[in-house]
Automatic annotation (TrEMBL):
<dbReference type="Pfam" id="PF03479">
    <property type="entry name" value="PCC"/>
</dbReference>
<feature type="domain" description="PPC">
    <location>
        <begin position="6"/>
        <end position="144"/>
    </location>
</feature>
<protein>
    <recommendedName>
        <fullName>PPC domain-containing protein</fullName>
    </recommendedName>
</protein>
<dbReference type="InterPro" id="IPR005175">
    <property type="entry name" value="PPC_dom"/>
</dbReference>
<dbReference type="InterPro" id="IPR025707">
    <property type="entry name" value="DNA_bp_PD1"/>
</dbReference>
Length: 148
């Protein structure tokens, strides 16, 4: 993956260009760790050679993984970066198009880029923290412990 800062200020904007074969979530988490990103949001376009999304089953209180082992165009991709236990965490959702024009999507678990993925990242100078919600087991943003 290559990156370039596009602007600075209270929010820094960067462009990240992922290469074929990059696993998106782990590569983005490493980038966030290496660049001390504790709060941010992103959006992107590109394509995957395969992807695993998940759907939260409310009754079971667990994510059900749904793998797609095929070439998919990314139609919509966005999410945020927060910290949990002082480690950057990615929370992303994606909608992907199949060659027949149908769409699939969900909570992004993992995705392998092919041929590229262009991501615009907005890094805040604040901190956002996650915690586990005891009722659901879901990792949620804790507004009260987030801030400077």
């Amino acid at each position: 993956m290559e990156s370039k800062v596009l602007s600075h200020g209270h929010e820094t904007t960067s462009l990240l260009v992922f290469q074929e074969g990059d696993e998106l979530i782990s590569t983005l988490e490493k980038y966030a760790f290496d660049h001390d990103i504790t709060s941010g949001h992103f959006e992107g376009i590109g394509a995957f050679k395969n992807v695993v999304v998940a759907f939260f089953d409310w009754d079971k209180k667990e994510y059900i993984k749904i793998p797609f082992d095929e070439q998919l165009e990314i139609l919509s991709f966005n999410g945020d970066i927060t910290i949990e236990d002082e480690i950057p965490k990615i929370h992303a959702h994606v909608v992907c198009g199949r060659k027949d024009g149908s769409a699939v999507g969900g909570h992004l678990v993992e995705g392998y880029v092919r041929p590229t993925l262009e991501l615009v990242l907005y890094k805040s100078d604040k901190h956002l923290r996650r915690k586990v919600d005891p009722k659901t087991g879901v990792h949620v943003i804790d507004i009260r412990s987030s801030g400077d």
